[in-house]
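BUG: 3D viewer hangs when loading the predicted structure for this chain

Environment: internal workstation, default settings.
Expected: structure renders.
Actual: progress bar stalls at 90%.

Input used:
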Amino acid sequence: MKPSKEIKDIENIARKVRAAIEEEIATSKYTNDIELQSFPRGSCEVATVILGLFLIQAGYEKTIQHAGLRRNINGSENYHVWLFVNDQIIVDITADQFQECTSKIIVETRSKLHDSFPVYQKRPLNLEALDRNGMANYRNLYNEILHKG
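Structure tokens produced before the viewer hung:
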């Protein structure tokens, strides 16, 4: 089945934002930041907010964060955050932090990876979510990526 124009457009935006985040991390002070130092590992929430704001700006107003938690067989837990666009499209630019994922980016209507994370919270996106206490101000990162366009 061929991906829809909408999925292609969202995937294009996701690839650009992921590349811009990687470039900023490689060339800036974010290298030592707790949430971004091992990108994509542990970076899902910040990356998701940044991508979500770009998608909303591109006209995908119905973009929300999904937060999921899975319990592993060994008793450990994984927390993950991704986007859900127009009530049907999963968008994730940090999926490759998980071994079972071979793609850096997921833009699909179904995903085994995301099915393994029961959603416990849905959150709206806003710029204030990038203002983090005790950590870097990710609003600056968002603005740097925005201005590179």
